[in-house]
């Protein structure tokens, strides 16, 4: 059987066919990505448009929810800043989030290092037990944590959330950092110890810089969970000056059967967009931290 000989014209046609197929595939991928991005962005777009709508525009069922059928107004956004302590809620959220992140790192880093590096027979069971704590529903821990808060005299105080939230963030952070530490060769710290560093010094100077993606993942996870948590924030803090965004905004903008809907949407956008922006700045390191923890654990 003879193999057909392709001429130069046939090869050019074949190259064009492959190029068109490759172009069509890339257009399909980018088109699907753009469609997915639009679907994900629609809630934010709807909230942003709703925040500047007039009441008669918002309540008219014939109006397009994604367009201004009446002239836009900033009155509802102004109401959020002038008639509610929204900035106080934001400040409280940032303070609690920063403190919880600091406590989480302070507890999770040495715990993960000891479980990953100190070869003890109880290391793996202890790591699993720590992670299982995260799976316990908050409703089961509520009573015991209430007793802790009352005993410490932290009712209606931001410090109650600083004490309670690490019970949620630390277990997952330890599990994540254990997986990431297992991806760092032991030779790195052993060489540092040969050069004269103690174990703590070797960890701080040689291992910790390599853990930066995992630390970023812990910081982002802990802060976002703290900013979005609702049950404990509502149960332990009832004083308005001590509330965070997750409880203060609905408390101030939902009064009986009256919903300040446009102001609620404005608060949603003003809270979510900065967090999403910062999250995207560290997205690569965040994904690296989680995937390394998932593969190596």
From TrEMBL:
Keywords: Cell membrane, Membrane, Transmembrane, Transmembrane helix, Transport. It is a multi-pass membrane protein. InterPro entries: BP-dep_ABC_trans_perm (IPR050901), MetI-like (IPR000515), MetI-like_sf (IPR035906). PANTHER family: INNER MEMBRANE ABC TRANSPORTER PERMEASE PROTEIN YCJP, MALTOSE TRANSPORT SYSTEM PERMEASE-RELATED. It is found in: Cell membrane. PROSITE patterns: ABC_TM1. Belongs to the binding-protein-dependent transport system permease family. Gene3D superfamilies: MetI-like. Its main location: membrane. It comes from Actinomadura fibrosa. This is Carbohydrate ABC transporter permease. The chain crosses the membrane at residues 23-46, 94-116, 128-150, 162-181, 202-225, 259-283. Residues 90-282 form the ABC transmembrane type-1 domain. The lineage of its organism: Bacteria, Bacillati, Actinomycetota, Actinomycetes, Streptosporangiales.
């Amino acid at each position: 059987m003879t193999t057909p000989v392709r001429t130069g014209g046939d090869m050019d046609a074949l190259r064009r066919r492959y190029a068109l197929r490759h172009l069509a595939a890339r257009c399909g991928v980018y088109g699907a990505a753009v469609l997915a991005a639009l679907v994900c962005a629609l809630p934010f777009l709807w909230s942003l448009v709703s925040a500047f709508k007039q009441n008669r525009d918002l309540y008219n069922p014939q109006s397009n929810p994604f367009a201004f059928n009446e002239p836009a107004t900033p009155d509802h956004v102004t109401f959020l800043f002038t008639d509610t302590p929204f900035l106080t809620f934001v400040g409280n959220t940032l303070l609690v989030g920063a403190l919880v992140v600091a406590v989480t790192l302070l507890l999770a880093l040495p715990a993960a290092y000891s479980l990953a590096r100190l070869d003890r027979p109880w290391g793996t069971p202890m790591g699993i037990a720590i992670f299982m704590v995260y799976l316990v529903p908050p409703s089961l821990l509520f009573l015991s944590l209430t007793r802790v808060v009352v005993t410490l005299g932290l009712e209606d105080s931001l410090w109650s959330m600083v004490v309670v939230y690490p019970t949620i963030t630390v277990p997952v952070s330890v599990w994540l950092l254990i997986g990431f530490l297992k991806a760092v060769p032991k030779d790195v710290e052993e060489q540092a110890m040969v050069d004269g560093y103690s174990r703590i010094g070797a960890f701080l100077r040689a291992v910790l810089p390599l853990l930066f993606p995992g630390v970023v993942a812990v910081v982002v996870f802990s802060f976002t969970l703290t900013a979005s948590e609702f049950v404990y924030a509502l149960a332990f803090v009832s004083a308005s000056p001590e509330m965070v965004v997750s409880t203060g905004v609905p408390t101030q903008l939902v009064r009986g059967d009256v919903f300040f809907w446009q102001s609620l949407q404005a608060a949603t956008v003003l809270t979510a967009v900065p967090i999403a922006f910062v999250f995207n700045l560290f997205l690569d390191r965040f994904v690296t931290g989680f995937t390394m923890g998932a593969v190596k654990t």
